[in-house]
Amino acid sequence: MNNFLSAVMVSQGLLPSGSLIDSLIHVSKEVGLMEKVPLVHTRSVSSMIRRIKFLSSLFEEIQETDTPLPPSSILCLTELFSVIRRVKVLIQDCKEGSSLWALIQLEFISNQFYVLVKEMGRALDILPLSLLNVTSDIREQVELLHKQAKKAELLIDPRELQRREQLIQLMANNSLQKKKNKGFIDFGKVEEILSSIGLRTPLDYDGEISKLEAEAQNQAGTGGLIVVSNINNLISLVSYSKSMIFRDGENDRNEEDCKPLSAFLYNKVHDSSSSSQSITLNVPDEFRCPISLDLMRDPVIVSSGHTYDRPSIAQWINSGHPTCPKSGQRLIHTALIPNCALKSLVQQWCYDNNVPVNEPTTEGNNNKKLKEDAIDHISANKAAADAVKMTAEFLVGKLATGSADIQRQAAYELRLLAKTGMVNRRVIAEVGAIPFLVTVLGSQDSRIQEHAVTALFNLSIFDNNKILIMAAGAVDSIVEVLESGKTMEARENAAASIYSLSMVDECKVQIGGRPRAIPALVGLLKEGTPIGKRDAASALFNLGVYNPNKESVVKSGAVPVLVELLVDVKAGITDDALAVLALLLGCSEGLEEIRNSRALVPLLIDLLRFGSVKGKENSITLLLGLCKEEGEVVARRLLANPRSIPSLQSLAADGSLRARRKADALLRFLNRWCSQPHHSV
């Protein structure tokens, strides 16, 4: 039975293709040949390579004996293959990634090595050494390795920890000194730290900057704004250090090289005289704003992760551009995050070069005006804001006292006015429009109702207005429109309003507490247009983040509807439906409903092959969750489907980091399940 089981596991793809021992020898040699050890996490990498070489000796001797493997060793060797493959990926990441970022993430990466050592020890727990035809030397070597792995503790090199603390302290002290208008950096200490991690030449510095920029790009748009800011601060430090340490070298870039990148934007906001004066000051390239090419006195980071001078980027976005000038990426928000580290470096450069810190490098009127007009968030000028206020006051008056025709026109105009610009949304709320818009939501005129709910949705995009809308008692009226609005567009925009409002945690609680809100969203999920279904699914996801709401979502019948939407090509909301289903796994009622869906597992297997990156992550999350709760049934259904194991293997090799981790976990679960004798395949 066990021999048959092993053969089935190989044929199903649970074991590496070809010979298991050949695969182990191959991947072990790949790790063993990684001779150039990275200068960060050196001890962890060296120790791990040494362990893999010991195991490689075992695998080679097993191969030389040319005897059949005991069936009980199959599971252990398969587990070891998975561990060694992940060791290889981790070491490659350490070698090819940013050394500086690896130093900052010292504990996190060290813990990854520690986890792999422990997994290696657990795999060796079930290795039947007595049944393997190996020499006593190899047996003793493996037993020693096993004992060491079991006793291993988290390994953090004290020297690397000291370097990391020195780097953090250096930046912290610099920030503190900046507040006292003193900008001193010990470049001798900076050079010592960077040299210790392999940065010794200008080319090394350029390579590190490129790796940090790639890391920042990977983090941008994923909710890691603070991480992106930290990486950009590191880029600024390395760039400035390079210019100071190698200032007499021949690697300095020509100042003219930056001009073509922003010539158009430059012409929009500055005249040619300011450029010539900036070049006269010999400003380092990394201190120049990509828009104006002038010294960045007040550097800020936009949502794309790029840094600009506050007046220039404020003028750029205020003139109607919703994208990052450098990358072309659409800005997901218009908040400007101060780049404190770069600002400190700029202040030190000004101090070193006798440039006034608080005065512009050019005396042009345009530069002064931009400095005066820039504010923390993008806004229109005062005259335009006053005009919006007068218009909004007039429209609110008509909405409050006019006839139905006048109310319809006023609601429509407010809808359009609230559609463009955060300042408009703020001003409309300030003149008291929200309570009157809530009042007319109950109008018998379908167009008034539609315009009013859409205007409220547009206003809710401005975060402060979310609280005002909730305080005006709008939720019940919006739910009424969502449930029985006079037009489908009104219902869909009501769902969009709930989605926008539910971004605030307090609103999740209040909206979820309305007994008709979640059932109305599920109703739109069944009946709406593709846009409406997407808004309803997004709103359900937001509400479901608050745990008590999950049960309401399930009891409203959302699970069968979401499963149907997975195959609804016209709706096109597969990823949204998967995200909600994965969220509902977190409550017992949701797990029960999902478990009862017979059509779900085959759909998830197909989505592992053909879904988007996010879809694959949520699909593997659902499968893994189902296996943990109902392992035998789901495992049988996965093994019965010839596409499941190849899809999981492909995902484990080429998927995103999250998907690879979960695919590996699911493959290990299936291995363990198959290895139990009472399970027939």
Automatic annotation (TrEMBL):
GO terms for molecular function: ubiquitin protein ligase activity. Keywords: Repeat, Transferase, Ubl conjugation pathway. It comes from the Eukaryota. InterPro entries: ARM-like, ARM-type_fold, ARM_PUB, Armadillo, PUB12-19-like_N, RING-Ubox_PUB, Ubox_domain, Znf_RING/FYVE/PHD. The keyword Repeat applies. Its EC number is 2.3.2.27. The keyword Transferase applies. Pfam families: ARM_PUB (PF25598), PUB10_N (PF25368), U-box (PF04564). This is RING-type E3 ubiquitin transferase.
